[in-house]
Protein backbone atom coordinates (compact mmCIF):
# COMPACT_ATOMS: atom_id res chain seq x y z
CA UNK A 1 0.00 0.00 0.00
CA UNK A 2 1.16 3.49 -0.43
CA UNK A 3 0.24 5.28 2.74
CA UNK A 4 -1.39 8.65 2.36
CA UNK A 5 -1.11 11.73 4.55
CA UNK A 6 -4.44 13.15 5.52
CA UNK A 7 -5.06 16.43 7.30
CA UNK A 8 -8.58 17.13 8.42
CA UNK A 9 -10.47 18.86 11.18
CA UNK A 10 -12.38 16.58 13.50
CA UNK A 11 -14.79 18.23 15.92
CA UNK A 12 -12.86 21.47 15.53
CA UNK A 13 -9.44 19.96 16.19
CA UNK A 14 -6.87 19.66 13.39
CA UNK A 15 -5.76 16.07 12.91
CA UNK A 16 -2.92 14.79 10.76
CA UNK A 17 -2.50 11.09 10.13
CA UNK A 18 -1.01 8.63 7.73
CA UNK A 19 -3.68 6.25 6.45
CA UNK A 20 -3.85 3.26 4.19
CA UNK A 21 -5.87 3.79 1.02
CA UNK A 22 -8.57 1.31 1.98
CA UNK A 23 -8.95 2.70 5.49
CA UNK A 24 -12.37 4.25 5.98
CA UNK A 25 -13.33 7.37 7.87
CA UNK A 26 -15.27 5.21 10.38
CA UNK A 27 -12.08 3.24 11.05
CA UNK A 28 -10.02 6.39 11.60
CA UNK A 29 -12.63 7.95 13.87
CA UNK A 30 -13.20 4.90 16.04
CA UNK A 31 -9.82 3.18 16.08
CA UNK A 32 -7.25 5.87 15.47
CA UNK A 33 -8.97 8.79 17.20
CA UNK A 34 -10.90 6.89 19.86
CA UNK A 35 -14.18 8.57 18.92
CA UNK A 36 -16.39 5.56 19.41
CA UNK A 37 -19.68 7.44 19.44
CA UNK A 38 -19.88 6.72 15.73
CA UNK A 39 -20.95 3.10 15.26
CA UNK A 40 -20.49 0.57 12.49
CA UNK A 41 -23.75 -1.33 12.07
CA UNK A 42 -23.54 -2.77 8.58
CA UNK A 43 -20.44 -1.45 6.84
CA UNK A 44 -22.49 -1.11 3.65
CA UNK A 45 -24.15 2.27 3.88
CA UNK A 46 -27.55 0.77 4.71
CA UNK A 47 -28.11 1.53 8.39
CA UNK A 48 -26.71 5.00 9.05
CA UNK A 49 -25.20 4.14 12.46
CA UNK A 50 -21.94 5.54 11.19
CA UNK A 51 -23.40 8.91 10.19
CA UNK A 52 -21.10 11.91 10.64
CA UNK A 53 -21.09 15.38 9.14
CA UNK A 54 -18.57 15.88 6.35
CA UNK A 55 -18.30 19.56 5.50
CA UNK A 56 -21.68 20.00 7.13
CA UNK A 57 -23.44 17.21 5.24
CA UNK A 58 -24.46 13.88 6.76
CA UNK A 59 -22.61 10.94 5.20
CA UNK A 60 -22.08 7.27 5.97
CA UNK A 61 -18.53 7.24 7.29
CA UNK A 62 -18.26 3.55 6.40
CA UNK A 63 -18.37 4.53 2.74
CA UNK A 64 -15.89 7.41 2.88
CA UNK A 65 -12.24 6.46 2.52
CA UNK A 66 -10.18 8.42 5.03
CA UNK A 67 -7.98 9.67 2.22
CA UNK A 68 -11.04 11.24 0.61
CA UNK A 69 -11.59 13.32 3.76
CA UNK A 70 -8.30 15.18 3.39
CA UNK A 71 -8.98 18.86 3.92
CA UNK A 72 -12.48 18.23 5.22
CA UNK A 73 -14.30 19.29 8.38
CA UNK A 74 -15.70 16.27 10.13
CA UNK A 75 -18.14 16.47 13.00
CA UNK A 76 -19.10 13.37 14.96
CA UNK A 77 -21.75 12.89 17.64
CA UNK A 78 -19.12 13.87 20.20
CA UNK A 79 -18.62 17.17 18.44
CA UNK A 80 -22.22 18.36 18.30
CA UNK A 81 -22.04 19.58 21.88
CA UNK A 82 -24.71 21.91 23.20
CA UNK A 83 -26.48 22.07 19.89
CA UNK A 84 -27.43 18.45 20.25
CA UNK A 85 -28.71 18.69 23.83
CA UNK A 86 -32.25 19.52 22.80
CA UNK A 87 -32.25 16.63 20.35
CA UNK A 88 -30.84 14.15 22.84
CA UNK A 89 -33.24 15.29 25.57
CA UNK A 90 -36.19 14.99 23.23
CA UNK A 91 -35.12 11.48 22.26
CA UNK A 92 -34.94 10.42 25.88
CA UNK A 93 -38.24 12.05 26.83
CA UNK A 94 -40.15 10.56 23.90
CA UNK A 95 -38.83 7.05 24.51
CA UNK A 96 -36.87 7.11 21.26
CA UNK A 97 -33.80 5.45 22.80
CA UNK A 98 -34.09 1.72 23.41
CA UNK A 99 -30.82 -0.10 22.87
CA UNK A 100 -29.28 3.18 21.81
CA UNK A 101 -27.05 1.79 19.08
CA UNK A 102 -28.68 3.76 16.27
CA UNK A 103 -29.06 6.90 18.35
CA UNK A 104 -25.78 8.70 17.58
CA UNK A 105 -26.39 8.27 13.86
CA UNK A 106 -29.94 9.56 14.21
CA UNK A 107 -28.90 12.55 16.30
CA UNK A 108 -26.31 13.60 13.71
CA UNK A 109 -28.89 13.26 10.92
CA UNK A 110 -31.48 15.17 12.95
CA UNK A 111 -28.99 17.93 13.69
CA UNK A 112 -28.30 18.30 9.98
CA UNK A 113 -32.05 18.39 9.28
CA UNK A 114 -32.80 21.05 11.87
CA UNK A 115 -29.94 23.20 10.60
CA UNK A 116 -31.65 23.23 7.20
CA UNK A 117 -35.29 23.19 8.21
CA UNK A 118 -36.45 24.71 11.48
CA UNK A 119 -39.97 23.34 11.48
CA UNK A 120 -39.98 20.16 9.42
CA UNK A 121 -43.23 18.38 8.69
CA UNK A 122 -43.57 14.72 9.53
CA UNK A 123 -42.94 13.88 5.89
CA UNK A 124 -39.78 15.96 5.82
CA UNK A 125 -38.58 14.30 9.01
CA UNK A 126 -39.14 10.82 7.62
CA UNK A 127 -37.47 11.78 4.34
CA UNK A 128 -34.44 13.16 6.18
CA UNK A 129 -34.12 10.04 8.34
CA UNK A 130 -34.50 7.67 5.39
CA UNK A 131 -30.86 6.62 5.72
CA UNK A 132 -31.05 5.67 9.41
CA UNK A 133 -32.41 2.34 10.59
CA UNK A 134 -33.74 1.52 14.04
CA UNK A 135 -34.59 -2.05 14.95
CA UNK A 136 -36.11 -1.25 18.33
CA UNK A 137 -38.48 1.71 18.41
CA UNK A 138 -40.62 1.41 15.30
CA UNK A 139 -39.67 5.02 14.45
CA UNK A 140 -42.81 6.70 15.82
CA UNK A 141 -41.07 7.86 19.03
CA UNK A 142 -38.13 9.08 16.94
CA UNK A 143 -40.35 11.18 14.70
CA UNK A 144 -42.08 12.63 17.78
CA UNK A 145 -38.69 13.38 19.32
CA UNK A 146 -37.51 15.23 16.24
CA UNK A 147 -40.61 17.41 16.09
CA UNK A 148 -40.28 18.10 19.79
CA UNK A 149 -36.64 19.05 19.38
CA UNK A 150 -37.57 21.32 16.48
CA UNK A 151 -40.09 23.14 18.67
CA UNK A 152 -37.53 23.56 21.44
CA UNK A 153 -34.90 24.83 19.02
CA UNK A 154 -37.46 27.23 17.70
CA UNK A 155 -38.19 28.49 21.19
CA UNK A 156 -34.54 29.05 22.00
CA UNK A 157 -33.62 30.77 18.72
CA UNK B 1 -36.00 -18.54 -4.43
CA UNK B 2 -32.67 -19.66 -2.98
CA UNK B 3 -31.53 -18.19 0.31
CA UNK B 4 -28.58 -16.00 -0.54
CA UNK B 5 -25.22 -16.52 1.19
CA UNK B 6 -24.46 -14.11 4.03
CA UNK B 7 -21.66 -12.38 2.19
CA UNK B 8 -24.10 -10.84 -0.24
CA UNK B 9 -25.48 -8.58 2.49
CA UNK B 10 -29.02 -8.73 1.22
CA UNK B 11 -31.41 -6.64 3.18
CA UNK B 12 -29.05 -4.25 4.87
CA UNK B 13 -29.21 -5.44 8.45
CA UNK B 14 -25.97 -7.35 8.19
CA UNK B 15 -25.23 -10.20 10.53
CA UNK B 16 -22.16 -9.88 12.74
CA UNK B 17 -20.48 -12.60 10.67
CA UNK B 18 -20.86 -10.54 7.53
CA UNK B 19 -19.45 -7.48 9.27
CA UNK B 20 -16.42 -9.32 10.57
CA UNK B 21 -15.77 -10.88 7.19
CA UNK B 22 -15.70 -7.58 5.40
CA UNK B 23 -13.59 -5.87 8.07
CA UNK B 24 -10.99 -8.62 7.94
CA UNK B 25 -10.76 -8.74 4.19
CA UNK B 26 -10.11 -5.03 4.09
CA UNK B 27 -7.55 -5.02 6.89
CA UNK B 28 -5.63 -7.87 5.30
CA UNK B 29 -6.03 -7.47 1.56
CA UNK B 30 -4.10 -10.33 0.10
CA UNK B 31 -0.90 -9.84 -1.76
CA UNK B 32 -1.20 -6.87 -4.02
CA UNK B 33 -0.33 -3.37 -2.86
CA UNK B 34 -3.07 -0.76 -3.24
CA UNK B 35 -2.05 2.63 -4.54
CA UNK B 36 -4.15 5.73 -4.04
CA UNK B 37 -3.90 8.63 -6.44
CA UNK B 38 -5.75 11.91 -6.16
CA UNK B 39 -4.65 13.94 -9.20
CA UNK B 40 -5.13 17.66 -8.90
CA UNK B 41 -6.09 18.25 -12.53
CA UNK B 42 -7.72 16.56 -15.50
CA UNK B 43 -4.56 15.92 -17.59
CA UNK B 44 -2.96 14.17 -14.63
CA UNK B 45 -6.07 12.06 -14.08
CA UNK B 46 -6.23 11.08 -17.75
CA UNK B 47 -2.56 10.17 -17.79
CA UNK B 48 -3.01 7.90 -14.78
CA UNK B 49 -6.00 6.27 -16.43
CA UNK B 50 -4.02 5.85 -19.65
CA UNK B 51 -1.12 4.25 -17.80
CA UNK B 52 -3.04 1.95 -15.49
CA UNK B 53 -6.10 1.13 -17.60
CA UNK B 54 -8.37 -1.46 -16.00
CA UNK B 55 -6.16 -1.82 -12.96
CA UNK B 56 -7.08 1.61 -11.65
CA UNK B 57 -10.63 2.18 -10.47
CA UNK B 58 -12.02 5.68 -10.75
CA UNK B 59 -13.41 6.74 -7.36
CA UNK B 60 -16.13 9.36 -7.09
CA UNK B 61 -18.57 9.15 -4.17
CA UNK B 62 -17.56 5.59 -3.40
CA UNK B 63 -21.05 4.49 -2.38
CA UNK B 64 -20.87 1.48 -4.69
CA UNK B 65 -17.11 1.10 -5.04
CA UNK B 66 -16.19 0.87 -1.34
CA UNK B 67 -18.83 -1.79 -0.69
CA UNK B 68 -17.80 -3.83 -3.73
CA UNK B 69 -14.07 -3.57 -3.03
CA UNK B 70 -14.47 -4.70 0.57
CA UNK B 71 -16.57 -7.66 -0.53
CA UNK B 72 -14.74 -8.73 -3.70
CA UNK B 73 -11.26 -7.31 -3.34
CA UNK B 74 -9.48 -4.04 -3.98
CA UNK B 75 -7.95 -3.15 -7.36
CA UNK B 76 -4.28 -2.40 -7.85
CA UNK B 77 -4.96 1.33 -7.67
CA UNK B 78 -7.62 3.93 -6.96
CA UNK B 79 -8.05 7.10 -8.96
CA UNK B 80 -9.77 9.65 -6.78
CA UNK B 81 -11.61 12.19 -8.89
CA UNK B 82 -12.34 14.55 -6.00
CA UNK B 83 -10.16 17.45 -7.16
CA UNK B 84 -11.58 17.53 -10.66
CA UNK B 85 -13.97 20.34 -11.55
CA UNK B 86 -16.59 18.06 -13.14
CA UNK B 87 -19.44 19.38 -11.08
CA UNK B 88 -22.50 21.49 -11.64
CA UNK B 89 -25.32 22.02 -14.08
CA UNK B 90 -25.02 24.24 -17.13
CA UNK B 91 -27.15 25.15 -20.12
CA UNK B 92 -25.64 24.88 -23.59
CA UNK B 93 -27.21 25.08 -27.07
CA UNK B 94 -27.08 21.29 -27.28
CA UNK B 95 -28.84 20.84 -23.98
CA UNK B 96 -28.33 20.79 -20.23
CA UNK B 97 -24.91 19.50 -19.20
CA UNK B 98 -24.30 17.94 -15.79
CA UNK B 99 -20.78 17.27 -14.55
CA UNK B 100 -20.11 13.63 -13.69
CA UNK B 101 -19.17 14.44 -10.10
CA UNK B 102 -22.45 16.21 -9.38
CA UNK B 103 -24.05 14.53 -6.39
CA UNK B 104 -27.59 13.25 -6.13
CA UNK B 105 -28.28 15.86 -3.45
CA UNK B 106 -27.21 18.68 -5.76
CA UNK B 107 -29.44 17.30 -8.50
CA UNK B 108 -32.35 16.93 -6.12
CA UNK B 109 -32.03 20.54 -4.97
CA UNK B 110 -30.88 22.38 -8.07
CA UNK B 111 -32.13 20.48 -11.08
CA UNK B 112 -35.93 20.40 -10.69
CA UNK B 113 -36.57 23.30 -13.02
CA UNK B 114 -34.19 22.21 -15.76
CA UNK B 115 -34.27 18.44 -15.43
CA UNK B 116 -37.32 17.42 -13.41
CA UNK B 117 -37.04 13.70 -14.10
CA UNK B 118 -33.38 13.56 -13.14
CA UNK B 119 -33.99 15.59 -9.98
CA UNK B 120 -36.78 13.23 -9.06
CA UNK B 121 -34.67 10.11 -9.64
CA UNK B 122 -31.85 11.67 -7.64
CA UNK B 123 -34.21 12.30 -4.73
CA UNK B 124 -35.07 8.58 -4.76
CA UNK B 125 -31.40 7.59 -4.81
CA UNK B 126 -31.15 6.39 -1.23
CA UNK B 127 -31.15 8.36 1.99
CA UNK B 128 -29.41 11.71 2.55
CA UNK B 129 -26.10 10.16 3.56
CA UNK B 130 -25.82 8.31 0.26
CA UNK B 131 -27.24 11.15 -1.84
CA UNK B 132 -24.64 13.53 -0.41
CA UNK B 133 -21.86 11.37 -1.85
CA UNK B 134 -23.29 9.45 -4.81
CA UNK B 135 -22.59 11.02 -8.18
CA UNK B 136 -24.40 10.88 -11.49
CA UNK B 137 -21.20 9.79 -13.27
CA UNK B 138 -20.63 7.00 -10.81
CA UNK B 139 -24.19 5.81 -11.18
CA UNK B 140 -23.75 5.63 -14.95
CA UNK B 141 -20.27 4.11 -14.97
CA UNK B 142 -21.27 1.47 -12.41
CA UNK B 143 -23.96 0.38 -14.89
CA UNK B 144 -26.17 -1.49 -12.50
CA UNK B 145 -29.38 -2.59 -14.25
CA UNK B 146 -31.13 -1.07 -11.20
CA UNK B 147 -29.47 2.34 -11.49
CA UNK B 148 -32.00 5.10 -10.84
CA UNK B 149 -30.36 8.26 -12.17
CA UNK B 150 -29.22 6.32 -15.24
CA UNK B 151 -32.82 5.25 -15.88
CA UNK B 152 -34.05 8.82 -15.77
CA UNK B 153 -31.25 9.87 -18.14
CA UNK B 154 -32.14 7.07 -20.52
CA UNK B 155 -35.69 8.40 -20.72
CA UNK B 156 -34.31 11.90 -21.24
CA UNK B 157 -32.34 10.60 -24.27
CA UNK B 158 -29.13 11.67 -22.59
CA UNK B 159 -25.64 11.48 -23.95
CA UNK B 160 -22.54 10.83 -21.91
CA UNK B 161 -19.11 12.34 -22.44
CA UNK B 162 -16.20 9.92 -22.29
CA UNK B 163 -12.77 11.46 -22.02
CA UNK B 164 -9.27 10.02 -22.31
CA UNK B 165 -5.77 11.29 -22.92
CA UNK B 166 -6.57 10.93 -26.62
CA UNK B 167 -9.62 13.18 -26.56
CA UNK B 168 -13.33 13.21 -25.80
CA UNK B 169 -16.39 11.63 -27.38
CA UNK B 170 -20.12 11.81 -26.79
CA UNK B 171 -22.17 8.62 -26.95
CA UNK B 172 -25.85 8.03 -26.31
CA UNK B 173 -26.72 6.40 -23.05
CA UNK B 174 -28.61 3.74 -25.00
CA UNK B 175 -25.41 2.56 -26.63
CA UNK B 176 -23.36 3.09 -23.48
CA UNK B 177 -24.90 0.23 -21.49
CA UNK B 178 -24.05 -3.22 -22.77
CA UNK B 179 -24.92 -5.52 -19.87
CA UNK B 180 -24.99 -5.69 -16.06
CA UNK B 181 -21.98 -3.69 -14.93
CA UNK B 182 -20.72 -3.51 -18.51
CA UNK B 183 -20.44 -0.44 -20.66
CA UNK B 184 -18.56 0.71 -23.73
CA UNK B 185 -16.24 2.77 -21.53
CA UNK B 186 -12.68 1.90 -22.53
CA UNK B 187 -10.09 1.22 -19.80
CA UNK B 188 -8.38 4.48 -20.74
CA UNK B 189 -11.54 6.55 -20.42
CA UNK B 190 -13.43 8.37 -17.70
CA UNK B 191 -17.01 9.65 -17.63
CA UNK B 192 -16.85 13.44 -17.51
CA UNK B 193 -20.39 14.68 -18.07
CA UNK B 194 -23.91 13.90 -19.23
CA UNK B 195 -25.99 16.02 -21.54
CA UNK B 196 -29.76 16.10 -21.90
CA UNK B 197 -31.13 17.41 -25.21
CA UNK B 198 -33.81 20.11 -24.90
CA UNK B 199 -37.12 18.71 -23.74
CA UNK B 200 -40.54 19.65 -25.08
CA UNK B 201 -41.67 22.53 -22.85
CA UNK B 202 -44.91 20.73 -21.95
CA UNK B 203 -43.10 17.55 -20.81
CA UNK B 204 -44.50 15.95 -17.67
CA UNK B 205 -42.28 13.53 -15.77
CA UNK B 206 -42.85 10.67 -13.37
CA UNK B 207 -40.52 8.41 -11.42
CA UNK B 208 -41.22 5.55 -9.03
CA UNK B 209 -39.12 2.78 -7.61
CA UNK B 210 -40.32 -0.17 -5.57
CA UNK B 211 -38.45 -1.81 -2.73
CA UNK B 212 -38.42 -2.59 0.98
CA UNK B 213 -37.86 0.91 2.39
CA UNK B 214 -39.11 4.36 1.34
CA UNK B 215 -36.17 5.35 -0.85
CA UNK B 216 -33.03 3.84 0.62
CA UNK B 217 -32.80 0.60 -1.34
CA UNK B 218 -31.62 -0.80 -4.63
CA UNK B 219 -34.69 -0.88 -6.84
CA UNK B 220 -36.61 -4.07 -7.27
CA UNK B 221 -38.43 -2.33 -10.09
CA UNK B 222 -38.29 1.27 -11.24
CA UNK B 223 -40.26 3.10 -13.89
CA UNK B 224 -39.47 6.52 -15.30
CA UNK B 225 -41.97 8.20 -17.59
CA UNK B 226 -42.21 11.31 -19.70
CA UNK B 227 -45.28 12.60 -21.54
CA UNK B 228 -45.58 15.52 -23.88
CA UNK B 229 -49.04 16.16 -25.33
CA UNK B 230 -47.44 18.17 -28.15
CA UNK B 231 -48.13 17.95 -31.00
CA UNK B 232 -46.21 15.81 -31.62
CA UNK B 233 -47.52 13.58 -28.88
CA UNK B 234 -44.63 11.84 -27.19
CA UNK B 235 -44.50 9.14 -24.53
CA UNK B 236 -41.24 7.75 -23.16
CA UNK B 237 -41.03 4.97 -20.61
CA UNK B 238 -37.95 3.60 -18.90
CA UNK B 239 -37.89 0.32 -17.00
CA UNK B 240 -35.24 -0.28 -14.34
CA UNK B 241 -34.01 -3.48 -12.66
CA UNK B 242 -35.92 -5.68 -15.11
CA UNK B 243 -33.28 -6.41 -17.69
CA UNK B 244 -29.53 -6.60 -18.18
CA UNK B 245 -29.48 -2.82 -18.50
CA UNK B 246 -31.96 -0.01 -17.88
CA UNK B 247 -34.49 -0.32 -20.73
CA UNK B 248 -36.75 1.81 -22.83
CA UNK B 249 -40.16 0.21 -23.36
CA UNK B 250 -40.22 1.05 -27.06
CA UNK B 251 -43.32 -0.97 -28.03
CA UNK B 252 -45.29 0.53 -25.18
CA UNK B 253 -44.06 4.00 -26.11
CA UNK B 254 -45.16 3.54 -29.73
CA UNK B 255 -48.55 2.28 -28.64
CA UNK B 256 -49.22 5.17 -26.27
CA UNK B 257 -47.79 7.83 -28.56
CA UNK B 258 -50.05 6.64 -31.36
CA UNK B 259 -53.32 7.00 -29.44
CA UNK B 260 -55.34 10.21 -29.52
CA UNK B 261 -57.43 9.37 -26.53
CA UNK B 262 -57.05 6.93 -23.71
CA UNK B 263 -59.55 4.97 -21.69
CA UNK B 264 -59.02 2.37 -19.03
CA UNK B 265 -58.86 -0.32 -21.73
CA UNK B 266 -55.81 1.24 -23.32
CA UNK B 267 -54.21 1.69 -19.90
CA UNK B 268 -54.51 -2.06 -19.35
CA UNK B 269 -52.96 -2.78 -22.73
CA UNK B 270 -50.06 -0.45 -22.01
CA UNK B 271 -49.35 -2.25 -18.74
CA UNK B 272 -49.36 -5.62 -20.45
CA UNK B 273 -47.12 -4.42 -23.26
CA UNK B 274 -44.57 -3.08 -20.79
CA UNK B 275 -44.60 -6.30 -18.78
CA UNK B 276 -43.90 -8.23 -21.96
CA UNK B 277 -41.06 -5.92 -22.97
CA UNK B 278 -38.92 -6.47 -19.92
CA UNK B 279 -36.70 -9.46 -19.19
CA UNK B 280 -36.35 -9.66 -15.42
CA UNK B 281 -34.51 -12.35 -13.52
CA UNK B 282 -34.93 -13.94 -10.13
CA UNK B 283 -32.35 -12.50 -7.78
CA UNK B 284 -31.79 -11.76 -4.11
CA UNK B 285 -34.15 -8.78 -4.21
CA UNK B 286 -37.18 -10.11 -6.08
CA UNK B 287 -38.48 -12.78 -8.42
CA UNK B 288 -38.89 -12.31 -12.15
CA UNK B 289 -42.62 -12.91 -11.83
CA UNK B 290 -43.00 -10.20 -9.20
CA UNK B 291 -40.99 -7.76 -11.26
CA UNK B 292 -42.98 -8.37 -14.39
CA UNK B 293 -46.17 -7.80 -12.45
CA UNK B 294 -44.94 -4.61 -10.82
CA UNK B 295 -43.78 -3.19 -14.17
CA UNK B 296 -47.38 -3.45 -15.32
CA UNK B 297 -48.65 -1.83 -12.14
CA UNK B 298 -46.24 1.10 -12.31
CA UNK B 299 -46.72 1.74 -16.01
CA UNK B 300 -50.50 1.77 -15.60
CA UNK B 301 -50.07 4.15 -12.69
CA UNK B 302 -47.87 6.45 -14.78
CA UNK B 303 -50.43 6.48 -17.59
CA UNK B 304 -53.32 7.20 -15.25
CA UNK B 305 -51.53 9.91 -13.29
CA UNK B 306 -49.78 11.69 -16.13
CA UNK B 307 -51.48 10.98 -19.44
CA UNK B 308 -55.12 10.19 -18.75
Structure description:
The complex is a heterodimer of chains A (157) and B (308). Chain A has 157 residues and is an alpha+beta fold. In chain A, 35% of the residues lie in helices and 16% in strands. Chain A is built from 5 helices and 5 strands; from the N terminus they run E-E-H-E-E-E-H-H-H-H. Chain A has a 5-stranded mixed beta sheet, with helices on one face. In chain A, helix 2 (85-93) packs across helix 5. The longest helix of chain A has 17 residues, at 140-156. By secondary structure, chain B is α+β, with helices and mostly antiparallel strands. Chain B contains 12 helices and 14 strands. In chain B, helix 4 crosses helix 5 (116-123), helix 5 runs antiparallel to helix 8 and helix 10 packs antiparallel against helix 11. Chain B is globular and about 60 Å long. Residues 1-29 of chain B have low confidence and may be disordered. The A-B interface holds A 1-2, 4, 20-22, 24, 40-48, 51, 54, 57-60, 62-65, 67-68, 70, 109, 112, 126-133, 135 and B 9, 12-14, 18-19, 22-23, 26, 29, 33-36, 38, 59, 61-63, 66-67, 69-70, 74, 78, 80, 82, 105, 126-130, 132-133, 213-216.
Distance separating the two termini of chain B: 37 Å
In terms of DSSP E residues, the strand content of chain A is 15-25%
Strand/helix succession of chain A:
EEHEEEHHHH
Strand order of the largest sheet of chain B: 4-5-10-6-7
What's the shape of chain B?
globular
Describe the largest sheet of chain B.
5 strands, antiparallel
Strand order, main sheet of chain A: write it out. Answer: 2-1-5-3-4
Query: How large a portion of the residues of chain B is in β-strands, by DSSP E?
Result: 15-25%
Give the largest chain-chain interface (CB within 8 Å). A-B, 40 and 39 residues
Helix content of chain A: 25-40%
Residue-averaged pLDDT of chain B: 90
Distance between the termini of chain A: 49 Å
